[in-house]
Amino acid sequence: MSHKPRILCLHGGGVSAEIFRLQFRYFLTRLEPHFRLVFVDGPFSSEMHEDLRPFYSEMGPCHRWSRWLPHHPPLDNESAIAEIEDSLTNAMDADQGTGKWVGLIGFSQGAKLAFSVLLENQLRHQENPWAPGFAGVKWEFGVIMAGRAPPYSLSHRTARSKNYVRPGELAQEHEYDYAACEFSDKLRIPTLHVHGMRDPGLKLHQHLLRYFCDPANTRTIEWDGGHRIPFRPADVELVTDGIFKIAKVQRLDAPYNKIPSEHHRGFPASPLALYAD
Fold first, then answer.
1. pLDDT digits over 65-86, tens only?
2. What is the largest CA-CA distance in the chain?
3. Cα-atom radius of gyration of the chain, to the nearest Å?
4. Is 235 one of the catalytic residues?
5. What is the DSSP letter of 191?
6. DSSP 3-state assignment of 145?
7. Which of 108, 193, 195, 241 does the annotation list as catalytic?
8. Which of these is catalytic: 41, 205, 227, 241?
9. pLDDT in single tens digits along all 277 residues of the chain
10. ω before 33 within 30° of 0 (cis)?
11. CB 63 within 8 A of CB 41
């Protein structure tokens, strides 16, 4: 029985928990001495993402967290939110670990969801400090890998806001006027944002960070790659160290490689010095 703190891991659209675990394999040996990582399938069936077919064509079925392509059937928002939350709670209930649930790690569509869950929790806490969090957890941090703006609406609190998209509808992310965004409830829960500098969606990842986050509580890592999980040892080490910083956990093992500081771009430390080197 594992008593390590637990992190819920959310895959991208057209993927699965099993495939995401394989994509994330370079991080497992570094994180698993400290955390229990639990990978969960999205609630809606999906064709495999075209980028994965050359490598994982025999693995399936695949899933998604929201309406992703025009032929995906629309859902009313309340039903979509309920199914998303059920997917998370069912995976958490099935896990045999006993440690505290502390964080979320997401890639692409899963990163957008992880960010949205943290934001929903913040809004609930502002209304009532004793209110249960989304999926019953008061999540402490998130790792947002290639997460696009704008966030999902996950309750009635945001359902009518133009600053959110509804998971049951097809998002028109590129048509959103980010420069005119007046988003007052910027996320203050600590997040690590991982951006591939050759990712076609980079601009939307940067918009999520710029317009929807309090910069005092974020850390950003930029790596020379496209729309994928970092895999080179230097990049993996850099992201791993960032995860430990936002989780406020002292790493037990020495880094495999010494990383030059100029590879990192971070925002100023918070007043609580959560991210001091």
1. 998 788 888 888 899 999 999 9
2. 50
3. 18
4. no
5. E
6. strand
7. 108
8. 227
9. 678 999 999 999 999 999 999 999 999 999 999 999 999 999 998 887 777 766 676 777 999 999 878 888 888 889 999 999 999 999 999 999 999 999 999 999 999 999 999 999 999 999 999 999 999 999 999 999 999 999 999 999 999 888 899 998 877 665 677 777 778 889 999 999 999 999 999 999 999 999 999 999 999 999 999 999 999 999 999 999 999 999 987 666 644 433 333 333 333 333 222 222 2
10. no
11. yes
By three-state DSSP, how is residue 245 classified?
Answer: helix
Catalytic (active site) residue 71: no
Residue in 199, 214, 263, 270 annotated catalytic = 199
Q: Which two tokens mark 268?
A: 């100023």
The amino acid sitting at 48 is: M
CB 89 within 8 A of CB 37: no
Query: Token pair for residue 37?
Result: 């990582």
Q: What phi, psi does 265 have (nearest 5°)?
A: -125, 115
Q: 118: which 2 tokens?
A: 């943290």
Q: Is 199 a catalytic residue?
A: yes
Tokens in use for 228?
Answer: 């994928």
The predicted model scores a pTM of: 0.88
Tokens 């934001």 sit at which residue? Answer: 119
Token digits of residue 42 = 């999205």
